[in-house]
Amino acid sequence: MAGLVTILRSGAWLTRERVRLIAGGIAIASLAGLIVLLATADGLNDRLGRPLGTDFSNVYAAGTYVLDGDPAKPFDPPAQQAREQAIFGAGTPFYGWHYPPFFLALAALLATMPYLLALAVWQGVTLVAYLWVIRGILNRHPLPAEVMRLWPLLALAFPAVFINLGHGHNGFLTAALFGGALLVLDRRPVLAGILFGLLAYKPQFGVLIPLALIASGRWRATASAAVTVIVMTIITTLAFGIDIWAAFLASGRFTRTVVLEAGDTGWHKIQTVFAWARMWGAPVPLAYALQAIVAVGAAIAVIRVWRGGASFADKAAVLLIGTLLATPYSLDYDLMLLAPALAFLVSDMMRCGAEASAEPWEASLLAALWLMPLVARTLAQVTLIPLAVPIMIATLLFVLRRTRRERLPLATAQRPA
Questions:
Q1: What is the DSSP string of 124-149?
Q2: Does a structural domain hold residue 72?
Q3: pTM: predicted TM-score of the whole model, two decimal places
Q4: Which domain range does residue 368 map to?
Q5: How many structural domains compose the chain?
Q6: What percentage of the chain reaches a pLDDT higher than 90?
Q7: Phi, psi of 351 (to 5 degrees)
């Protein structure tokens, strides 16, 4: 046991060959799972009667309402379910529409295509955007050739990728927008602000972004993000009418009480402190209180790190991981945000060299963070033991410890825009 602890602490077990073997095995298994899913499908539905791409069905159904001239209907759960059942069959489970009106235009664009084509375009385009951003993060500094040959496998085999593909979800887009904004923040702050502003389609992931930008004095990016949200709001209102916001606010009560507080989605799927507390029987007020404590802690960490002289990789990782910890509503496909965090941290470690960058347990902890989405949902469902939140908190604490060492010269830290 002592020897195992020593190996895990040093990270010596994480050889390049083992990384390639593990990632390759997960990639093959994931691809096989997708092939089986498609091979056993019946029309638009899988063998269990669910729409292929499950959650994408709510995006497509909402888009058809927009094309019909009824953009407020997706915010009415009975009407949304009726449209989903009209498209996919009477036995189709309910997939709720919980997005702000900003997302309706994209939903309508996708609904102009046949469903399977729309699903393929949606996942294909956003997957490419995600891979482009990961490649950009790793290319910020020269890295060994063998690392650059290995990254596509690691990016595609990241377990949250398969989860996102299976659900037809937006994790690729969220990771691309967030990671892309961080990637260009130094060089093109206005573009970074626009990308941050576009994340308003997932408002629960935007809480800590203003704190980071303001704390580091990035006023051009802050203004650009604010203007982007304002322009999106004006365009959406002109396109769909002011009543669309009343419909959205009214639907928020259903999302909060049924989906989040009552756990209709399933506590094992929601990877947050709130869901952890509710899964273990905590009343709603206590669950919110615990979530608030973690959210405040994440906010303080973001402000302190972004105000200081830590490397930008550490700042980016703290913001990305802190964002996932701060919200009460984040599912396992949203763990795609960990991919750019891992890319920033690993590239920083490789650039500085093992002796300069390594902390005890660091390599093993990052490997656990990469693997975690593979088992987080199943483990919580079977054993009621959460995995995502403890590992994310542990990683955040390790990164905070790294920032205190101020390993890098101040010149490598990002300058305010």
A1: HHHHHHHHHHHHHHHTTS---HHHHH
A2: no
A3: 0.92
A4: 113-412
A5: 1
A6: 79
A7: -70, -40
